[in-house]
Amino acid sequence: LIGASVEQVDTSAELIRKAGESIAGMAAGIEAVAATVSDIATSGAEQSSGLSEITSAVRQLDQLTQQNAQMVEQAVGQSRALGERATTLAQAVASFQLQQGTAEEARSLVEGALSLHGELSREHYMRTLTDASQPWHDRDMYVFALDRSGKYLAFGGNTAKVGTRVQDIRGVDGNRLAAAIVEQADRAPGWVEYDITNPASGAVQTKMSYVCRVDDFYVGCGVYKKLSS
Q1: 75-89, 90-104, 182-196: which has the minimum mean pLDDT?
Q2: C-alpha distances in angstroms, 70 versus 79, 158, 198?
Q3: 172 and 67 Cβ atoms separated by less than 8 Å
Q4: Does residue 197 contact residue 174 with C-beta atoms inside 8 Å?
Q5: Considering the entire predicted model, what is its pTM?
Q6: Cα 210 to the chain's mean position, in Å?
Q7: Separation of alpha carbons 214 and 211, rounded Å
Q8: CB-based burial label for 10 (10 Å; 0-12, 13-18, 19+)
Q9: Sign (positive/negative) of CA torsion 199, 200, 202, 207?
Q10: Sequence-separated (6 or more) residues with CB below 8 Å from residue 165
């Protein structure tokens, strides 16, 4: 009985030892699981922090996008306003330009009048140039014909000027102008410049006339230099 008891005790001790080893293994496994859980928790915290930073960055991007959209709207509004101003300015300039002729237009009128000369008698030609229904006056431009002394033989659209002289024009050195027209046209068709009082503004301005000689008289057309350039 004593021997059997000793064997049973040994067996029980062996079982107890094995149980202890198993428990120790379980404890180690539990520690490993705990460490893994801790790592997961740490990783989760880091991911949460990362997501928070991403969310904050997304919010900032959204704010920047909204600000950019507002800036774009403001820029579009300013562009429209500038476009409207540019259109208004262009219309004003176009309207201004339509109120006076250019050097090219004055020369074209003279050349047109010269082409008409061979088709009509001298008297009919002068009447046609002066006739207000004919196209020999336009805005501040008018085709004129004068003799060597400076007397107007025709004046586009204004019969009252026929028979008057260049020397009668207010605010201009008529003798000098008549001499300059004759000198230039006798030499070759070209331009003469002179100062004259603008009847619309009352200011003294430089005017230039394109003049040509036809037989024994002179045909020309003038424009204000500053406005025609």
Answers
A1: 90-104
A2: 14, 62, 52
A3: no
A4: no
A5: 0.57
A6: 35
A7: 10
A8: exposed
A9: negative
A10: 149, 150, 151, 152, 174, 178
Q: Exposed (0-12), middle (13-18) or buried (19+): which is 205, by Cβ within 10 Å?
A: middle
Strand (E) or helix (H) holding 193:
strand 190-197
Looking at residue 98, its pLDDT comes to: 56
Query: What's the Rg (C-alpha) of the chain?
Result: 52
Contact (Cβ atoms closer than 8 angstroms) between residue 39 and residue 47 = no
First vs last Cα of the chain: how many Å apart? 141
d(CA 179, CA 220): 14
Going by C-alpha positions, the residue among 119, 168, 121 that lies closest to residue 146 is 168
Residue 223, classed as helix, strand or coil, is: strand
The pLDDT assigned to 228 comes to: 45
Burial of 9 per CB tally in 10 Å (0-12, 13-18, 19+): exposed
DSSP 173: -
- The answer to whether 113 and 189 are in contact (CB under 8 A) is no
pLDDT in tens, 81-101: 878 877 776 665 555 555 678
**SS3 string of 65-94?**
HHHHHHHHHHHHHHHHHHHHHHHHHHHHHH
